[in-house]
Task: structure prediction
Amino acid sequence: MKVAIIGGGIVGATAAYYLSKENDLDVTVFDSGHGQATKAAAGIISPWFSKRRNKAWYRMARLGADFYQTLVADLKADGFDTSFYQQSGIYLLKKKEKSLKDLLELAQERRQESPLIGDLELVALEEAKKTFPDLQGFDQAIFASGAARVEGAELTQTLLSAAACPVIEKVVKLELVDGAYLIDNQVFDKVILATGAWLPQMLSPLGYKVDVRPQKGQLTDYFFDDLETSDYPVLMPEGELDIIPFTAGKISVGASHENDKGYDLTLDDAILSGLEVEAQAFFPKISEANRKQHRVGTRAYTSDFSPFYGQVPDLSGVFAASGLGSSGLTTGPLIGHNLVGLLLGKETSLETSDYPIENYIEK
Ligand SMILES: Cc1cc2nc3c(=O)[nH]c(=O)nc-3n(C[C@H](O)[C@H](O)[C@H](O)COP(=O)(O)OP(=O)(O)OC[C@H]3O[C@@H](n4cnc5c(N)ncnc54)[C@H](O)[C@@H]3O)c2cc1C
Result:
């Protein structure tokens, strides 16, 4: 069976990896890489503190965080370096003490079904500085030891190397010719559309209306020659700002959520410097970085901010996922794995009807 995956972000790369474990499958990935959200992501995996009321979304997000344990174990067993994922913990801040205590209570409740959260406690600034020196700007934080950070670009590279399938770097179209699926002059039996924010462009030539919109996201990576940042926890104040330490002295600061910029990928100095100023209030050392670089990508979101996946209505053998929004690095691997289950007719871990594709894709 010949399977095409269009899109090599987190969803497509995970699908490629798990499909490559099946016998008698010939998998090809097509990915332009342009504007990819996965490469631009901040990489925080910590869904348990979300106040969103959408239960189906929360189930997907908490199971998505859990699924990293499986993904990392599978890649390790296949002999791959998995340092792209590290549970270095998180400090969460709230302006009001009561909000902090309420959030701690919520997380303690959620820990019963999600032990991955790990240790949960209120810590004073002085305590937090022992694991993330030079912090300031708050008295107390919630610490959760099981929260993780992921290098999106490294993760997809690892998955695609492990899949060992051809990855063709170009923009492609899906065509339906005499009942066959044609992509880049090749015929495929089954197709996965993992095109993120570009699903409307993929499906509208085939007569579909797709409820997916682009959201621009920008962040900055700061590099410090003299800091050993590998074990620093993530710092998540209220609002858009997050401070995410990675290995080798890299600390990322982001990210913007811009709904009115379409697919624009130009860097906006005003937004990036605004985030830097906000970050200085908590980590003044940011202004001493030896160098910095910016990243920008396009997230996909739907009118009710819910992700979806499944078989494209009336296109037997064509599966799609999109609308992963701000939490797609958390949910993406699980969605990719579930798409593979659907394509192979196997049991899936999520209830597909909870994320109904027909609500977002209409012929
Ligand atoms: C700045 C920023 C910060 C974020 N931070 C976090 C975070 O901390 N935690 C979290 O959980 N999530 C985060 N996210 C969200 C997460 O990154 C995305 O939801 C997720 O990566 C989406 O994955 P995807 O595979 O659906 O799409 P993408 O990663 O966008 O991949 C889609 C790919 O398809 C390709 N493509 C599209 N059309 C075609 C075509 N016609 N032909 C060939 N290729 C095509 C694109 O070029 C792209 O490479 C962040 C996103 C951004 C932008």
About this structure: The first helix runs from residue 10 to 19. The two ends are 27 Å apart (CA to CA). The CA atoms of residues 7 and 194 lie 5 Å apart.
